[in-house]
Design brief:
Number of strands: 2
Largest sheet: 2 strands, antiparallel
Oligomer: single chain
Shape: elongated
Number of helices: 5
Structural class: mainly alpha
Radius of gyration: 27 Å
Length: 129
């Protein structure tokens, strides 16, 4: 800022009065490039494998539940999310409001399917909780 001559404009902006291109032309972007490189490495080595494992577990659970019960896709997705968030159990409130048509045995089977599908991946400490 000490090398830039400027003045305020009537539109509450600034007008640069001197040539400042050399101040930006050869900046040191080493820290920025290093940070971006580390983000890409983390994405490739950690985030993408976790996401792939999550999607594989989700697809397995969805397929197995659909083989047992005919349920709309959005309801099935919500059911899987709710059971996972509640550590493998369908909360009583959700049981009565979302899937009241299911028998207790079907609810237990669904909980077990979801737990089984995600168990291996969570055992591998993939951070998908």
């Amino acid at each position: 800022m000490p090398f830039i001559e400027w003045r305020p404009t009537p539109r509450q902006n600034v007008e640069v009065l001197n040539d400042t291109a050399d101040l930006y032309r050869f900046g040191d972007y080493t820290d920025l490039a290093t940070f971006l490189y580390e983000c890409v490495v983390q994405t490739i080595t950690r985030d993408l494998p976790r996401e792939i494992d999550y999607l594989a577990a989700y697809d397995e659970a969805r397929r197995r539940i659909q083989d047992m019960i005919d349920m709309p896709e959005n309801m099935l997705g919500n059911l899987i999310a709710v059971v996972r968030q509640n550590h493998g159990k369908l909360a009583g409130k959700r049981r009565k409001s979302d899937v009241e048509a299911l028998s207790d045995a079907e609810v237990e089977a669904v909980e077990q399917i979801i737990s089984d599908a995600f168990a291996l991946r969570e055992d591998e400490d993939l951070g998908l909780n």
